[in-house]
Amino acid sequence: MALQLTNRRKVVSNKEQSFSERLYLPGILKGMLITGSHIFKKSVTIRYPEQTRPVAPVYRGQHVLKRDENGAERCTACGMCAVACPAEAITMENAERKKGEEHLYREEKYASKYEINMLRCIFCGLCEEACPKEAIFLTDRIVDAEYERDDFVYGKDKLVEKIEKRIDVSKRQTIEVSEFKKVPGTKHNTLYDGKAIGKGKH
Amino acid sequence: MKVTIDGIEIDVPKGTTILQAARMIGPEVAPPTMCYYSKLKTSGGYCRTCIVKVTQGSTANPNPMPKPVASCRTEVMDGMVVQNITSPEILEARKGVVEFLLINHPLDCPVCDQAGECKLQDLGYEHGSAKTRYEFKRREYDMIDIGDKIKLHMTRCILCYRCVKTCEQITDGRVHGVVHRGDAAEISTYIQQAVSNDFSGNVIDVCPVGALTDKTFRFKQRVWFTKPVDAHRKCDKCSGKVRLWFKGEEVLRVTARKDQWDEVEEFICNSCRFDHKKKTDWIIEGPSKISRQSVISQNHYENLNELKLQVLKQQKALGFIEFDKRP
Question: Which residues of A touch B221 (CB under 8 A)?
Fold first, then answer.
């Protein structure tokens, strides 16, 4: 006997049809009645994108590259997100900030090109976790459908938030989260005998 | 002379330092170094990262040494017993040393070009704490151009003197040095005089931090996104044996090859380092061996079989599986 995975298995028989079954129409009517009854039931679908379903505040959707309080880009192209990315979806190119660009870029170095391939991305949020500059966040926005594969490679034009239209990520930046990032005692601080270094008694 | 380091005995010739003896045993017991450089004479003794505990001075005088000693400057005696990683005291003391080194070091690793191959980063990760207790303003300097190819970022300097000794010993006529003293000490050239020697570029390679960086590679790419490849060319000034750092088909940077202690194998000349950045200039030998622990080997899969073997060995050591029974 073959391996049984569930006990909901049904044995299909090929027995001869009865007279009413052979008439064909009663069966069709029965089916149509079930179909027709759904006209009066509440629809399970919604009219996206006019309507959206509620999502969790920490839902991991389309990324955003944040600007700081002065409107300068926070990202410094350190590459930690790209290294952390398990799907290798992030690529970037660096450039040096010139004089007079201080209002555009927060640090001496910035990402002249920053691309995320949304088809490769698995929305795990590791980039967000790796970012030392609080620059990249996943938001509750859903990545749009496109016709061309190339259109899924999002550049800085789609990722960096607009100055006039900031994206609120305060829900993801709870005190607990920012405290967690500062706390020693995460895995890399325990090296000797499992004792947390950095938690000295000084 | 017999010397025992962390319980491992080794026979070394007279005049060997504790550090050299430890390096002969292997990287597990060798103390980390920031200023000592085996290729440079009189280097070492400044940073104190390599401190070890001597529990028995020699067979003739079995008393322990009263304080931790700098292993790069202490010669071995017959019958000496040394503790490095087996001594919690030393680990604690080294943690303090790391904290001191980091006091004035800026936290600009995301911007710094050295990140990923920085010895201070490794040291801080292994021995230091994740937080700083320092609350005062860190010292700051303006960036200095040493010639048109080298950038000196004095803020990041830990005053290891390696670059000064390189200029003294590898190049003729040193024009840069350490000026001022104590807290105000800084590496500088007199009136920002350009270092124009053929071998001056080697100061970039010997610098353990990102204080001296290659201006031709400045902000080009993070180190771990480039692919290191060993190559050589015929050069009448140096050996011509270098490491090329590729991004795609493009050579972004040329450095000297480094050994397992992160020291330059052979110093290379400036013309190899700065002027030959075409793939066709070089005869490529093959990909460089990079430690699996290094971030540079991240996302490189060429040594997959070796990696699997290492993982299996680790699992065996931890008693997870019977190693020999695996296919």
Answer: 93-94
